[in-house]
């Protein structure tokens, strides 16, 4: 997946865009011909993340199969940027093993999301269960407009 950077501080989705054709072209190139060394990182760098907003919170769910809790880091940077990062280790290769196919990716991953202004960044919670990381960012209660009754004369 290829990320296209945009720069709009007002757009919560401005940090990254998904390129639907990136994986299609990558799959046409045999792994032996692909660029050296970084294929594992590139393949796993784009951990799939869903972001939904409920009345109470922003909820992020990331598919991280085979990743241990100790291999994942969730941080909120200054300026309200949620950073989900970590690393999935490559399976140990024993001498004498003969691999016929390697499709599961490994390596470092990082995703960044600019949080809206109503996010309570000091109350972020995260949990990893069954290979799915769930990050919950509570929302500040919106200030309700004051209503003042106006007497109608006449």
Automatic annotation (TrEMBL):
Keywords: Stress response. CDD domains: ACD_ScHsp26_like. Pfam families: HSP20. Residues 40-154 form the SHSP domain. It comes from the Eukaryota. InterPro entries: A-crystallin/Hsp20_dom, HSP20-like_chaperone, Small_HSP. Belongs to the small heat shock protein (HSP20) family. PANTHER family: HEAT-SHOCK PROTEIN 20 FAMILY MEMBER. This is SHSP domain-containing protein.
